[in-house]
Amino acid sequence: MKTLRTLLRFTLTLSLIQLAAGDSAVNQATQNDKAFAKYGLSGKGVIVAFLDRGIDYHDVKPMVSALFPLTFDYGLLHPSNEIVDRSLQCIDDGPTLYRGVRDEVTWYFGPDLVVELDRFEAEVAPGSPAAASRG
């Protein structure tokens, strides 16, 4: 149990790396350039169209993209590879990884996990909103 808790702390600490969003590697990996070349479309504004029509984007957007830059596999929520290998273009600027997708974590995993992650965030990131709310 102690090993599991240590692993969880290490993983969540990695998740608290500073970040801003955006990465051209994602566009390359999804081959958006081919869609743009063939149809002249980039996909920009699609979410706006869903919201404008009252469609919840959770019904159409893949969970993995909604949680980015966090990801999950083997039962573990953790930073995406682009964070670990520091290839994300705008790393080290903005909120913590967790804070940036906190609402998505709540949506997909529920409030109980968020309460625990907020508690952990307050411990490891003293200047975080979670730490301020404990004050």
Question: What would you note in describing this structure?
Answer:
By secondary structure, the chain is mainly alpha-helical. It has one domain (2-24, 61-134). The chain has helices spanning 2-15, 24-29, 32-39, 46-52, 63-67, 81-84, 97-100, 102-109, 111-124, 129-134; strands at residues 18-19, 70-73, 76-79, 91-96. The strands form 2 sheets. The protein has a two-stranded antiparallel sheet. It has a two-stranded antiparallel sheet with strand order 2-3. β2 (70-73) and β3 form a beta hairpin. The radius of gyration is 17 Å and the shape is globular.
Task: Give a topology summary.
Layout: H1 2-15, E1 18-19, H2 24-29, H3 32-39, H4 46-52, H5 63-67, E2 70-73, E3 76-79, H6 81-84, E4 91-96, H7 97-100, H8 102-109, H9 111-124, H10 129-134
Antiparallel strand pairs: 1-4, 2-3
